[in-house]
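Worked example

This section walks through a single chain of length 202. The input is the sequence exactly as stored; nothing has been trimmed or padded.
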Amino acid sequence: MPLIALTGGIASGKSTIARRLAEHGAVVVDADAIVRDVQRPGSPVLEAISAEFGSGVIAADGELDRAALAAIVFADPEARTRLNEIVHPAVRAESQRRFDEALGRGDGTVVVYDVPLLVEARVDDPWDSVVVAHAPASVRRERLQRLRGMTAEEADRRISAQVDDDQRLAIADVVIDTAGDLQATLAQVDALWAELTAAPAS
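Given that input, the structure is written out below as tokens.
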């Protein structure tokens, strides 16, 4: 019952890899989805965020105004650290609950934790394998501009807010090169799945 950490920089193709693994039968636990869950209206996390960053980060409907919060934390590393100190413990607890639930399904289950901030927050956890989606920063910058409508400056700010590629690659057990076309990426994921599910040699 392997527990796999899947990480990569913004616009690295990590979500494409996660979807393909899910198609093969992996249980994918999405860290970003957990973040949204623990920040729902009325949650202790959202109340702490509002207390720390002000009511301006709360939208009229009571939801977190992610754009307003991003404008603060991507411009100020200290603010980003304070946000992480609020959010990360709640995410860790909820992700562990979901791991336990998935692994309780029995032998043969492959659980994949899709987590952008692995190096920053979870690198020392007992993963069976760490998979890194990798594309050069120049490729990811172009994707952010083309697919998400960011300016070059916005893209650079998002990329530089994360750890650099060398730090991610240093913890990788498997690197999936996502700089090529989609089929090349999927072929690497399929090969990874075959390795993860291969019967052990007798």
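What to look for: The CA atoms of residues 10 and 159 lie 7 Å apart.
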